[in-house]
Amino acid sequence: MAKLDEKIDGMYQEVLKRNPGETEFHQAVLEVLESLGPVVVKNPQYLERKIIERICEPERQIIFRVPWQDDKGKVQINRGFRVEFNSSLGPYKGGLRFHPSVYLGIIKFLGFEQCFKNSLTGLPIGGGKGGSDFDPKGKTDDEVMRFCQSFMTELYRHIGEHTDVPAGDIGVGGREIGYMFGQYKRITNRYEPGVLTGKGLTWGGSLVRTEATGYGATFFVNEMLKARKDSFDGKICTVSGSGNVAIYTIEKITQLGGKCVACSDSNGVIYDEKGLDLALIKQLKEVERRRIEDYTKTHKHAKYIAKGNIWDIPCQVAMPSATQNEINGKDAATLVKNGCIAVGEGANMPTTPEGVKVFLDAKIAYGPGKAANAGGVATSALEMQQNAGRDSWTFEFTEKKLEDIMVNIHNNCFETAEEYGAPGNYVLGANICGFIKIANAMVAHGLV
Ligand code: NDP
User: Distance from the CA of 104 to the center of ligand 1, in angstroms?
Assistant: First the structure.
């Protein structure tokens, strides 16, 4: 761990004290604070105005009961969350996660990171995140619908196109957004597309939103490779997960000439030396909602490794796209030893602090999630722009905007890292660049 500046260490100790047991939140805060020492030296007003302390404290945290009935008529209770973290750059914006592991600490880590990510996009969006410990896996469509309706029956009073605009994340895709939008419309009697993003294309959604996080992360890695006079061409790649982000990462890597040989889900890993069959993965995961193991039913040459570790498979580019802390120090060392030259995080905080240190020490091209996966939220903001203008843009136009945004984020992180004397360190570049914009807006807004 880098040593924290003494003043900043005091702030971190306070975060630990005020937020007991929220280990993922502590981890996300520490990772940002480690970069800020030189920033407060240059800008003492950030200390005087307690900008860092204020950024670490969410503006509002909402926790609510979500009762619903399963298909057998049994009553089920889940817990819902929305953490509205920081609105200095625009309305709160960030996804909803439905996964049994969700608790306040997960939502706060995601909301905290979201603030810096949204700042990096250059678009007018603040940071927030929400979700529930509900597990959509194994539930029928009707059960998912009843849950989403109950969830929205509380959430609706806290959101709005100028207030807070949720989107998807793990366990929340087009189906869930549809049910929540329907319930919002019913309760409020308002057709207000700007209240949620990730909507269906016929009712206010944007082309490229589905693809955006995976495509964006791949564009980011492409820029890191270009900065090293390299490209995806002929590179062997592995992508963890097989959900929304993983699928469109595999698609874009393939379009840019790379070869993806492995992906996964929480049960195991698929290794296909010939290159993954993406049409089959889409059919299994997007259409039939099956497990990735079924890939080998039609593709006998591929290997399924139950409970396997995808990072043991040699690759030149690794794109973690499943969940937090999926690459530990040992996995990172294995990747580097096996010749990995670039890591782009489609997932949020997928690498532990020990793993990050391995990548930085090895000086490989390492793109942290808050920069690399910002394409999803950026395209959500483009969806909001289209909704506000009652417009819909073509795929090509929207994809080009996404690519331009990712190139810009890359360049800003790259240049900030150089300016602060750490060339090639995208962690430092992303943290500082994301922070300064929020901090300046907070100073301008006064003590609020
Ligand atoms: P999905 O629900 O579509 O897919 C998640 C994938 O990750 C599934 O294959 C899932 O497997 C796997 N996974 C989830 N949890 C675990 C776990 N604990 N261990 C192993 N595998 C796991 O989610 P997304 O693709 O949308 O999100 C993936 C990551 O990307 C998350 O970190 C999310 O925060 C991040 N992200 C998503 C954005 C978006 O636009 N969707 C935007 C920016 C970041 P299984 O089916 O077995 O659970």
Answer: 18
pLDDT digits over 17-39, tens only?
A: 999 999 999 999 999 999 999 99
The pLDDT of residue 177: 98
- Number of Cβ within 10 Å of residue 274's Cβ equals 10
pLDDT at 33: 97
One DSSP character per residue, 126-166 reads -EEEEEES---TT--HHHHHHHHHHHHHHHGGG-BTTTEEE
Active site residue 330: no
Q: Which two tokens stand for residue 361?
A: 């020490």
322 lines ligand 1 (CB under 6 A): yes
Interior angle at CA 27, CA 21 and CA 29, nearest 5: 105
Q: Is the CB of 171 under 6 A from ligand 1?
A: yes
Total-model pTM: 0.97
Contact predicate 369/430, CB 8 Å? no
Task: Enumerate domains of the chain plus CATH numbers.
Answer: 6-55 (no CATH), 60-192 (3.40.50.10860), 212-372 (3.40.50.720)
Sheet order of strands, 92-98 included: 60-69, 75-86, 127-132, 92-98, 164-167
C-beta atoms surrounding 88 within 10 Å? 22
Name the pairing type of β-strands 92-98 and 127-132.
Answer: parallel
93, 117, 129, 437: the active-site residue: 129
* CA distance linking residue 160 with residue 82, whole number of Å: 13
